[in-house]
Amino acid sequence: MNLTISGHHLEVTPAIREYVQTKLERIRRHFDHVIDIAVILTVDKLPEKEKRQKAEINLHLRGKDLHVESIAHDLYAAIDALIDKLDRQVIKYKTKLQAHQHDAIKHIPDPAAILVSTS
Length: 119
Fold this sequence. Notes:
The structure is a single chain. By secondary structure, the chain is an alpha+beta fold. The protein is built from 3 helices and 4 strands, in the order E-H-E-E-E-H-H. It has helices at about 15-30, 75-105, 110-119; strands spanning about 1-10, 35-45, 50-60, 65-70. Strand 2 (about 35-45) and strand 3 form a beta hairpin. The longest helix is centred in the last third of the chain and has 32 residues, at about 75-105.
């Protein structure tokens, strides 16, 4: 798995990098088929009272790409909200994937039923 953390109008400190990595462990715990993760942290230079911190993530899974954004006044709060949204999307994708795999087994006709109906 490749992890890229970049900042836009922001220097990514080791503390921020470590915080993002520990939060992403939650995603890896739910779903381990992650190929690539790209995190972009942005500080919007607005007037002082309206400074916004934005966190984005692009998650490349086997068969799907997920994109999530979060905006808050604090960068750590934006990262927390981002991980919560991403966690919900990954769980939803995982349940769809598992349900789709089990549907094929449900639709296989019973061989005994075929013999009874043709007789």
